[in-house]
Design a protein that fits this description.
The chain has about 180 residues and is mainly β. It has one domain (about 45-175): Jelly Rolls, CATH 2.60.120.10. Helix content is about 5%, strand content about 40%.
Amino acid sequence: MKAIATSIPDVLIIEPKVFGDERGFFFESFNRNQFTELIGREVYFCQDNHSRSAKNVLRGLHYQIQNPQGKLVRVVQGAVLDVAVDIRKSSPTFGQHVTCELSADNKRMMWVPEGFAHGFLVLTESADFLYKTTDYYAPAFERSIIWNDPEIGIQWPSSAMPILSAKDQQAKLLADAEVFA
């Protein structure tokens, strides 16, 4: 595995070493020792999640204000634009974001540490999105920041109105959101 730096030092794009031939491919999607070395600290993943979404579905920008979750995310079918937004008030990159296309073809992963809001937009007819988390889902502490907040300025690739859940339609602007210290 190799880590690709982003404009926010704590967020990393991770590229696995893929072995392929006419029969198919193999790659190690997670190795605790290598991952610890790449991000510079040990993390404990306690939950694996899998979601399937249709084209133009936008999920996010989600976070948990208590029991914050670090996420190692990847796509095993289709493609998404994945986004991480720094919502740590004391961070020099507060309010800034990183985007990366994750797909079954490129096999890239993104490490989204605790203290970030996270979301993705499905670019293909559907996408299967897998992610490991460092803490359990705690719905009482879940928060959302609106996907098109002008202060954050994410350049979403689709001109079509994204398909949002009722919860994501009610998300707050970053200026009004509960954030990390």
